[in-house]
Amino acid sequence: MDNSDGTRSALIVGAGIAGLTTASALARSGWSVEVIESGSEGTAAGWGLSLTGPSLRALHGLGLADQCLAAGYGMSVITNVDANGVASQLELPHLIGGDGPAMAGIARPELHRILRAEALRAGTRIHYGLSVSRLAQQDGQVCAELTDGTVRTVDLLVGADGIRSTVRDLIGRPTPVRYHGQMVWRARVPRPGWATGIHTFAGDGHQTGVVPISPSRAYVFLTENGVPPDVLPDAELAARMGELLAPFTGRVAELRPEVARSDSVIRRPVQTVLIDTSWSDGPSVVLGDAAHTPSPQMASGAALAIEDGLVLAKELDRYQDVGKALEAFTDRRRERCSALVRASVAIASLEQEQRHRESYPLIEACHHRMAQPA
């Protein structure tokens, strides 16, 4: 990736949400961009996610919001039902104008398909089964040795390689991955007719809910409290999730048979990461979950990741010096991302203490804070 025509070059490690949106934003700004991904092509972890208003606003900046809305399910309201059966509604901020929804649920493979297609259309090269093993700085550039033994010399290296980032360690920013005593289950099910928005239901021990991801599909989530981050056999997940849903009545009881026979159930620990120093070292930077992983309660990890890519490209347009641009990027993003991660941890703690009604105003305040410009 040594360019003799003056084009600036970037190597992005990770082809998830953060990596692909960053690739598109940089390529549109005239960068020569290469993405490497340790996983195989076509894999996307999890069944679905929520694209909140800030996500749609950032995707609109890439011209992709309409595609995502068409592939997903638009919503504007979160209905929270406490342990006493009392329901309250949160109307989410509308950030992309018009009469469209405030947010959207979408299947992860669909979102990945859209982001990958746009990165390729913009000229990005993507390689799978490949990561970075060593970094060195030389004459203001980064020399990256890859796991296949080849070397790339680039003007910018971006670590978008997730919560257990290799790049984060290679640039000297080792950061603990914190576990918060919760395991989140997700099962893909047919969308019930009443689920036209996100619904959450608080129980005596756990919390559950449903998120539509298309006109025909949804996923049921369950947050299991006070458990170790152990691993269960995949063959046992559907039956076990059905058992955990047994104490719930009403609409959750309607969903339980669908969960118990679902062939698409996953279980993941609730973990967070937050780098409390600079996210960059010379011409190398980490972003997305590699720099700031919130717990899933705020459904805003995707929003932060997409925003990161667009803001990084803007700062690199402002500064010819890459190091200065990365410092400006970190300064611009740190407070917003840190506040969201810390709020998500507070919400997780309130859930474990069965103080759900106290968590709802905090969630609402965070959504309105995130609605402010990135």
Give an overview in words:
By secondary structure, the protein is α+β, with helices and mostly antiparallel strands. The protein has a domain at 9-73 and 101-176 and 272-354: 3-Layer(bba) Sandwich (FAD/NAD(P)-binding domain). It contains ten helices and 20 strands. It has helices at 17-28, 53-61, 65-71, 108-121, 166-170, 234-245, 251-260, 301-318, 322-352, 356-370, and strands at residues 9-13, 32-37, 48-51, 73-75, 77-81, 87-91, 103-107, 125-128, 132-138, 141-146, 151-154, 156-159, 178-190, 198-202, 207-212, 217-225, 265-274, 280-281, 284-286, 292-293. The strands form four sheets. It has an eight-stranded mixed β-sheet, with helices on both faces. The longest helix has 31 residues, at 322-352. It is globular.
Q: Alpha-carbon distance between the termini?
A: 31 Å
Helix residue percentage = 25-40%
Detail the poorly predicted runs: none
Using the coordinates above, name the CATH class of the domain at 9-73 and 101-176 and 272-354. Alpha Beta
CATH architecture of the domain at 9-73 and 101-176 and 272-354: 3-Layer(bba) Sandwich
What amount of the residues lies in strands?
25-35%
Structural class: alpha+beta
Strand order of the largest sheet: 6-5-14-15-16-13-17-20
Query: How can the largest sheet be summarized?
Result: 8 strands, mixed
Number of strands: 20
Shape: globular
Q: What is the third-level CATH name, the topology of the domain at 9-73 and 101-176 and 272-354?
A: FAD/NAD(P)-binding domain
Figure out the total of helices.
10
- Supply Rg: 21 Å
Mean pLDDT: 95
- Tell me the CATH superfamily of the domain at 9-73 and 101-176 and 272-354: FAD/NAD(P)-binding domain
Order of helices and strands: EHEEHHEEEEHEEEEEHEEEEHHEEEEHHH
